[in-house]
């Protein structure tokens, strides 16, 4: 049975990704902040970790050397900081970058070591169209652009080891994160969406399942927009 690891497993998209990978037959290990809890679609096993805390991440990583090798990693945990540009502190910037970019790098590097030994593996990063377009939430836009760069760079370096690395760039998806966005900004955003509706978490999870499976065996370094036509 393939072992999959999903970060942000208790979030709107994370729950759906866990449920979809479990339905495909994977044993799913979920990671999320210790203050969160599972709903009905929890992972098979939960590892609490504050991904903004480098010490906590360092304690978590050796776990992946001991247990069954990971076949699939989905970096889904993410957060934003809403403060306007002149109110942002360095701590605000660092916290967003730590969760959205540093943690995916550290986790990918760790699980890829053992994927390389077996000669196969899939990593899927949940970026955002804000990584391509920029965002009024500056650290968020910068972190997601970085995650797209990380995806392409890892794809290049890990391809010789049989490891594929792809990203999804979601538009607006119905989760607690999108529900927290300023309604005026949201209305402006929707103006750009030809399908004229939000996406559902299941519409991301199905693409994750595809990118994590052999059905996408010739894809690596791709950034797949799942955004109702926003980028068309
Ligand atoms: N919802 C959208 O419209 C949308 C659009 C584009 C991209 N995304 C991205 O999709 C991913 C999933 O977001 P979502 O929409 O499900 O939002 P969500 O807020 O429901 O889920 C985010 C998850 O990340 C976890 N997380 C945040 N900080 C953490 C930390 N310090 N340590 C560990 N876990 C932490 C949260 O606990 C939560 O479970 C994120 O990376 C987000 O940036 C979302």
Task: Sum this structure up briefly.
The chain is of the alpha/beta class and 232 residues long.
Q: What are its keywords?
A:
single chain, 232 residues, alpha/beta, Rossmann fold, seven-stranded parallel sheet, 9 helices, 7 strands, globular, binds nicotinamide-adenine-dinucleotide
Q: What's the structural blueprint in terms of helices and strands?
A:
Blueprint: E1 3-7, H1 12-23, E2 27-32, E3 45-48, H2 54-60, H3 63-66, E4 72-75, H4 90-118, E5 121-126, H5 130-133, H6 138-158, E6 163-170, H7 176-179, H8 183-190, H9 201-211, E7 223-226
This protein binds nicotinamide-adenine-dinucleotide (NAD).
Q: How much of the polypeptide forms β-strand, as a percent range?
A: 15-25%
Sheet/helix structural class: alpha/beta
Using DSSP, what is the number of strands?
7
Instruction: State the share of residues found in helices, binned by percent.
Output: 40-55%
Can you count the helices?
9
Oligomer: single chain
Strand order of the largest sheet: 3-2-1-4-5-6-7
Mean pLDDT: 96
End-to-end separation in angstroms reads 38 Å
Whole-angstrom Rg: 17 Å
Give the C-level CATH assignment.
Alpha Beta
Shape: globular
Can you write the helix and strand succession as a string? EHEEHHEHEHHEHHHE
CATH architecture: 3-Layer(aba) Sandwich
CATH topology: Rossmann fold
Low-confidence stretches: none
Major sheet description: 7 strands, parallel
């Amino acid at each position: 049975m393939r072992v999959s690891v999903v970060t942000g497993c208790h979030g709107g998209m994370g729950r759906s990704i866990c449920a979809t990978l479990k339905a495909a037959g994977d044993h799913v290990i979920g990671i999320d902040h210790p203050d969160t809890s599972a709903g009905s679609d929890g992972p098979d096993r939960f590892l609490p970790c504050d991904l903004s805390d480098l010490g906590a991440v360092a304690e978590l990583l050796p776990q992946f050397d001991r247990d069954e090798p990971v076949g699939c990693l989905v970096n889904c945990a993410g957060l934003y900081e809403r403060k306007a540009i002149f109110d942002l502190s360095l701590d605000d910037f660092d916290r967003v970058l730590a969760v959205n970019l540093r943690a995916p790098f550290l986790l990918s590097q760790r699980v890829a070591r053992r994927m390389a030994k077996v000669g196969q593996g899939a990593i899927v990063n949940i970026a955002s169209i804000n990584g391509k377009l920029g965002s009024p939430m500056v650290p968020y836009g910068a972190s997601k652009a970085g995650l797209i760069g990380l995806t392409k760079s890892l794809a290049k370096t890990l391809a010789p080891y049989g490891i594929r690395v792809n990203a999804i760039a979601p538009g607006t998806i119905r989760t607690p994160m999108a529900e927290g966005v300023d309604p005026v900004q949201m209305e402006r955003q929707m103006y750009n969406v030809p399908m004229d509706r939000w996406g559902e978490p299941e519409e991301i999870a199905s693409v994750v399942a595809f990118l994590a499976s052999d059905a996408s065996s010739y894809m690596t370094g791709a950034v797949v927009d799942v955004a109702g036509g926003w980028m068309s």
